Amino acid sequence: MSTPADFCRVAAAPGLPAGRLDPDRCSVQALVRGDSGVATASPAQRWLLVEQPGPWGVEALTQSRFDPAVAPRLAHRARIEGVRLLLVRRPGDRLADSQRRWAYVDGRPGVEGVWWSVRESDAELVDVPWDGSVGERADRPLYLVCAHGGHDACCALRGRPLARTMPADDVWECSHLGGCRFASNVLVLPHGFYYGQVPGDGAELVEAHAGGRVALPWLRGRSGLPAPVQAAQHTARAELSLLGVDDLLPRDVRRLTPAGVEVERWVVTLAGPDGDVVTKVESRPSEDSAPLTCRAVHAAHGRTWHVRLLSGV
């Protein structure tokens, strides 16, 4: 099976000693199969980033040095308010003392922002406002590289070397982002763009976002948008050469088939510079099943996405 033209292959994780990335690792097998990461970004639109150096277990918040009495309360609030909670730490600084920083991030179109604060205690995070009214606003892109080896080894084996070498001013290792088989995974905030299989030191990705553009070859999608919209945007960006971070925002999503059927179809309308861009989107299970993470016990089918532009070309 060949790799889709709109996604990438990387030969190996940069900076890793030979032999550490075994052939049966999920990220290696995903490259062999040619899995596409398109339309696999998270549904999250808001995040709470909590600086927490040191080791993280499978469940990062509760299996870390974060106050164990506070962790369940903080996780409960995040669930209730629909905020994605991520632990972060500086690359290569795993055991260093934390400066106890935290950030609220809003990725919703038109109100994007990152606000950094410092906490005196972990308990403060349970009651402090999560709305941008607290903290100092950051004015540059924030790069989170998944390095959560306790959740999936590929994230550490590929993510940690990338985080150490990425040529950007604000790079952090973070806990589980999802899509482990697409490691190295990077989340660019505040807009919430997910990237997978990022090659080298990520310089092309950083250069693109410094110029207000997406790096299409490795783009998984924009967080918070439905998967059919992510797929439609990806194809429309490629065919119309519209790479601005705010290009092709969704205007309408119309489902053509019942939810949960094997082959699902939608009509997705995007806002183009010269009028609406109308697309027909189809999703179906992958032909073959496979373990989708290193920890997976059973094989599963991913989803494949197929998009055709109907107007706006």
Features:
4-stranded antiparallel sheet, single chain, 14 strands, 313 residues, 6 helices, disordered N terminus, alpha+beta
User: What is the H/E string?
Assistant: HEHEEEHEEHEEEHEHEEEE
Q: How would a textbook summarize the main sheet?
A: 10 strands, mixed
From the alpha-carbon coordinates, what is the Rg to the nearest angstrom?
19 Å
User: Helix coverage percent of residues?
Assistant: 10-25%
Q: Count up the helices.
A: 6
Distance between the termini: 29 Å
Q: Looking across the biggest beta sheet, what order are the strands in? A: 5-4-3-1-2-7-6-8-9-10
Backbone structural class: alpha+beta
Strand content: 25-35%
**Number of strand elements:** 14
> Which shape, going by the Cα principal axes?
globular
Give the mean pLDDT: 91
The low-confidence runs, each spanning 5 or more residues with pLDDT under 50, are 1-19
Description:
This protein has 313 residues and is α+β, with helices and mostly antiparallel strands. The chain contains six helices and 14 strands. It has helices at 26-33, 71-81, 124-127, 153-165, 203-210, 227-240; strands at 46-51, 84-89, 101-106, 113-118, 136-138, 142-146, 171-174, 186-189, 193-195, 219-222, 250-255, 264-272, 275-285, 303-311. The strands form two sheets. The protein has a ten-stranded mixed sheet. The protein has a four-stranded antiparallel sheet with strand order 11-12-13-14, covered by helices on one side. Strand 6 (142-146), helix 4 and strand 7 form a beta-alpha-beta unit. The longest helix has 14 residues, at 227-240. The protein is globular, with a radius of gyration of 19 Å. The two termini are 29 Å apart. Mean pLDDT is 91; it is low at 1-19.
